[in-house]
Amino acid sequence: MYKHDEVLHVHEDLQSRLIQSALILFEENGFKNTTVNSIVIHSGSSKGGFYHHFKSKDELLYRIHESFINHVNRLVDELEQKDLPPAEKLDYILTHFIFVYDHYKAHITVFNDENKYLADEYKTEIVASRRKFKSAIETIIIEGQAADVFTKDIHPTVITMSILGMVNWMYTWYKPDGRKSLEDIAEEMKIFVFNALRSHS
User: Last residue of some domain: 54, 79, 98?
Assistant: First the structure.
């Protein structure tokens, strides 16, 4: 008989397998054309195993989003424990935000391409979970402007949405095997952002 932690490990492995299979199939065939049965077959699971972890295909897509948005929101929690000036806070959160693509590019790509099929109940939760990260960046910008570190010529919301848009859309062009490494991209994006934010006072 399995010990309790061994049972949990088996369940986590099955959940991970189901998500990985869904990522592959959603990328290849799209959310709409991928059935629960095809995910089950691809993952070597069973329908009972699928419905033990997810009540529907919609919930599975929501959990794909949850995996990477929880990761970036943990960055916010970590940052709140650090006593850093605004520029260092922005450097920290930008670097780690960009490096989300190191582990979650498939999750981000699938979600952005297929989220139009999500039920409204999940869309509401997604907006709420993304608001935390947006607010954290905007707060850093406001702090930097108050300290005359960042320009006051641009509204903090415009700066925040520009940063989010720039990084979020990386999924359309970033390739892990491309000419630029993620390290290179992070450094060049930060140069771009900090040059734009430089205070002229």
Answer: 54
Q: Which residues of 108-129 are buried (b: 16+ CB within 10 A; e: fewer)?
A: bbbbeebbeebeeebeeebeee
CA 14 from chain center: how many Å? Answer: 22
Instruction: Say if residue 130's pLDDT is above 80.
Output: yes
CB 131 within 8 A of CB 73: no
Same domain, 69 and 132: yes
Structure tokens at 13: 């492995």
Write out the residue range of the structural domain in which residue 164 sits: 56-197
Domain count, the chain: 2
DSSP SS3 for 179? coil
* Structure tokens, 197: 């934010």
pTM across the whole model: 0.82
Beta-ladder partners of 150: 198
